[in-house]
Design brief:
The structure is a homodimer of 286-residue chains.
Chain A lengths: L1 H12 L2 E4 L9 H4 L5 H16 L5 E5 L1 H4 L2 H17 L4 E7 L3 H12 L7 E4 L12 H6 L3 E7 L19 H13 L11 E5 L4 H10 L5 E3 L9 H5 L8 E5 L1 H4 L12 H19 L1
Parallel strand pairs in A: 1-2, 1-8, 2-3, 3-4, 4-5, 5-6, 6-7, 7-8
Helix pairs in contact in A: 3-5, 3-12
């Protein structure tokens, strides 16, 4: 099971999930100007970031929207980024948040668990119902793939739907969490976690503890560290025995060079420093 | 506003939204064998379907998953399909069901309202909250674009989340519907509908009437006709004054040739016959 590989990587290398949400305006001017087009600039920026951090991250999360925004050439840079991460033996989470049903969902599974865009984990949006997950599940056992289902996010609008309180007293995200945890039982690895995981953003400590205690078999993808305001103490609530989740930071690392004098020239080394700092900040509170 | 163009097209040409969810196994063998690769076969199949139906549909809905499944070459066929529909002056709904926040949502807006994959309408998944819609909204006024937000679907799992009853007695989809209707007020066209519409599948007549009466300013994208089991009477509940929605059929039309003797040879003419039949079946119950 892919979740065992992720669990063991976290134990060895820490919790950092480095988000390659690479926007062209994140690139230092001098670096960007070496390339004829945005796609090449972005891929080569990613390559340098990956090269500088490959031994100190748990995994990379690639946000497909940033590449899709650049059309066919952008998606070519996306594919090249996935291929480059694979060449370093690191684990990839493709943040695609797809969500559809029946044959359409089968097509999305084919799109991201096979072919040009093949990855290790994808994020999924379950709003249409739990049958949105089904076409992806056979890949968990047969092809060493994994899923992070959207559960509780931490954007300003997270309460609009996820926190609607049902008449039995449970919030929508709690109802979804229980169901995901139940499906996840069928895809357990050797380390008490399932290859069907969940995305949980930092909201309050109480909610975090509740989620961690209720969804014991669920490995978490925790966004919102750094640029989005989360801190080590907040994410630690979602971890147990120093494992059980990876913590994403994108801009905090990609734009780390802005914190250093002349950082632009060594943006990759700055990214490494910021990654190490984040890794150690998290380890220190566990 | 793009919604006025869609409204006027429905008034003139009927309600059929022809779904180009084109799977390679839908193509007649003899036709498929003329091409060296799946992408060319699919694009040329689409082209013949579009050519045969362009004067009798309200719009085309292109389901991106079927193209994404074929990787970069598939997405090239997707782009060529969009371009071909544009050349016929018809309206396109890109069924992408994206849903994300902040800068990531901005990137999805750029991906589908500009550049290679530019379209007229997209479908969106609001599960993360209503801030998922925000980055798309400026395009409604400034670039003649439109949205169909997922509201109430008709897949087997639709009750899992959308129909959770909140403590104030309203179902989740009803709460979302009210909010969408309220945001939609800011993007009204000249014909009582907004460029922010919603996807509503056929569940029960009572629910349908409730949705139609509550969301007066919302134009509907109604899936599930034909292959998925819906019938003209069921969809008519969602329309008012012979307008207010488009009705999608994909397999029912693309595979229409299977209903005719030697249909394989004239699959495009069969698609035209099935489209006309569907159009008239709907008009007859209104």
């Amino acid at each position: 099971m892919i979740i065992d590989k992720l669990f063991e990587t976290v134990a060895k290398k820490g919790h950092v999930c480095l988000g390659l949400d690479t926007s062209i305006d994140y690139l230092p001017e001098n670096f960007k100007n070496q390339f004829d087009n945005e796609e090449d600039a972005i891929f080569n920026f990613n390559k340098k970031i990956i090269e500088a951090t490959k031994d100190i991250v748990a995994c990379y999360k690639v946000q497909i929207a940033y590449y899709e925004a650049l059309g066919l050439k952008g998606l070519n840079a996306y594919k090249k980024t996935l291929d480059y991460i694979k060449s370093t033996q690191n684990i990839i989470i493709s943040d695609v948040k797809r969500g559809d049903i029946a044959k359409t969902a089968e097509m999305y599974a084919k799109a991201h668990f096979e072919g040009d865009f093949e990855t290790d984990f994808i994020t999924l949006n379950p709003y249409m119902g739990f049958d949105t997950l089904e076409p992806f599940l056979p890949y968990l056992k047969n092809k060493e793939k994994g899923i992070f289902a959207l559960l509780k996010t931490s954007n300003p609008g997270f309460k609009d739907i996820q926190f609607i309180e049902s008449k039995n007293g449970k919030k929508v995200y709690e109802i979804i969490g229980e169901k995901i945890s139940s499906i996840a039982q069928n895809y357990m690895g050797n380390n008490e976690y399932s290859s069907l995981g969940a995305v949980v953003g930092c909201t309050s400590t109480e909610e975090g503890q509740n989620v961690r205690n209720t969804l014991k078999n669920i490995f978490f993808l925790i966004p919102g560290y750094g640029a989005q305001g989360g801190a080590a103490e907040e994410v630690s609530v979602y971890l147990k025995n120093k494992n059980g989740g990876v913590v994403n930071s994108s801009r905090g690392i990609l734009l780390g060079y802005k914190k250093y004098d002349n950082g632009e020239k060594n943006f990759d080394e700055c990214a490494r420093k910021e990654t190490l700092k984040m890794r150690d900040d998290i380890l220190n509170v566990l």
